[in-house]
Amino acid sequence: MIAVGGIYHHAAYYPHPDTGELLGKYLLVLALPQGNDVVYRMLTSRYASHRPPGCHHGDPYPGFALGIPGGELAKPTWVDLRAQDDYDIDVFRGQLGKGVIRRVMQLDAVPLRGAMACAAAADDTSNHQARCIRDAMAELGS
């Protein structure tokens, strides 16, 4: 099942620049708009100790600090707010079924809302993605 606020691990997200070996990344689902898309951003712990808390839209690149989400995300983690194309939901579901993508956890409501608001306001977020994220926030209720 794909859910807004779900954190997923994609085991073969990108190739290593030197070896070409496929490496994994954690993904946070920010919206599931009509039209077969998954609006998401990557998570990272890289340089987390140098990141400001909360929402940051400046250099070296925009992000939202999540703290330590827990479970296998046991290091300070932040949402990388650089541009990402939407993920086709059928491809995402297929990779879930094959185990290439697996659900890790559901992000708590408070950090999820903060991440969504920060992502919707980021320069690299398209107008369409921002609308979808804000719609998803409204569906979460208060």
Description:
The protein is an alpha+beta fold and 142 residues long. The protein has a domain at 6-42 and 82-140. 26% of the residues lie in helices and 33% in strands. It has 3 helices and 8 strands. It has helices spanning 89-98, 109-121, 127-140; strands at residues 6-15, 22-31, 37-44, 55-56, 63-67, 77-80, 87-88, 101-106. Strands 1, 2, 3, 4, 5, 6, 7 and 8 form an 8-stranded antiparallel beta sheet that branches. A hairpin with a 6-residue loop joins strand 1 (6-15) and strand 2. Helix 2 (109-121) runs antiparallel to helix 3 (127-140). The longest helix is centred in the last third of the chain and has 14 residues, at 127-140. It is globular and about 35 Å long. 30% of the residues are buried.
What's the helix count?
Answer: 3
Helix and strand composition category = alpha+beta
Number of strands: 8
Q: Distance N terminus to C terminus?
A: 23 Å
Percent of residues in helices: 25-40%
Average pLDDT works out at 91
Largest sheet: 8 strands, antiparallel
Could you say which overall geometry the principal axes of the C-alpha atoms support? globular
Radius of gyration: 14 Å
Any low-confidence stretches, pLDDT <50, length ≥5? none
Order of helices and strands: EEEEEEEHEHH
Proportion of residues in β-strands: 25-35%
